[in-house]
Write a structure and sequence with these properties.
This protein is mostly helical and 133 residues long. It has five helices and no strands.
């Protein structure tokens, strides 16, 4: 793989990961802190601040997810799942984990193809060399 393309993918992955964590933390704070403050103690100020911040940063998350998805050629289903994960508390952390794993596997496969190495076996499967032994 071209080193510039690889570094661009890694930079896009870093941007996506940062935004996934920021949006995830804001959503957890919104749901677990600000909503009880509003509906139990009748203090709506924090919902206003966190809600607006989450809304704007969620749009940035979608842009970064599209960017990394375009670079590694994700299907639209992956982008839709990431978009949904940004609206459910704690799920953006799970989506970030699987997206990061997918991108790293994509990079490893591209590196293996570039060096002419054998195909990378899936986790838990036997490698071709183990089957021959």
């Amino acid at each position: 793989m071209d080193p510039q393309k690889r570094s661009a993918i890694l930079a896009a992955l870093t941007r996506y990961r940062v935004m996934a964590w920021v949006v995830g933390c804001l959503l957890v704070a919104l749901v677990c802190v600000a909503m009880p403050l509003k509906y139990v103690w009748h203090s709506p100020a924090m919902v206003s601040y966190l809600g607006v911040a989450h809304g704007w940063l969620y749009m940035v998350l979608l842009i970064t997810a599209y960017d990394i998805g375009r670079r590694v050629k994700w299907p639209w289903v992956n982008l839709l799942l990431i978009a949904l994960a940004g609206t459910i508390p704690f799920l953006s952390f799970v989506a970030e984990h699987y997206a990061t794993r997918n991108v790293r596997r994509h990079l490893a496969e591209a590196d293996a193809a570039a060096t002419g190495a054998a195909e990378i076996p899936a986790a838990g499967s036997d490698s071709p060399n183990q089957l021959e032994a």
